[in-house]
Amino acid sequence: MNTNEKPGLITGIAVMTLASGIINLFWGYIASVSVLSTIVGVVCLPITILPTILGVFEIVYGAKLLSNPSQPLKASPSLASFQIAAVVYGNIFSMVVGILNLIFFNDQIVKDYFARLNGVQVFSPAAVQPVMPAPETLPQPIEPVLPEPTIEQPEKPKRVRKVAGK
After folding, report:
1. Counted domains in the chain
2. Which residue in 63, 54, 60 sits closest to 23, CA to CA?
3. Within-domain flag for 106
């Protein structure tokens, strides 16, 4: 398989990520405009911009996945995690896309594609020969060093107090 031939899962990831990016752009714009209509919303404006920023990152990542010739690119589970976190803003579609992307990133075909794309040599499990470990030599027991026996001095007898006058 040539690196220009994309598996269907890669194309699916790219298209879903692009669609989620476009929806997040609109979602962030609508949230920002609706928040600006209130005085308290002006303070909350930075929070409503986050879906727009996520949408930009999604569009860039999806476009790189769809580019021909393919650019060296790694799987982005962090982007998928942010897509899932977009449910906080009420964006269910982005959450579903994030879950599907995480599932697709764990597929062996997708892992092999990203490895070939980045120039990492991929070995098939059937081609790998098991390596037999070298026979282990048991360590020789170390003789414990016993302390020299010490001769204890007998205790001095206690003095008996003599009473004066007797």
Report:
1. 1
2. 54
3. yes
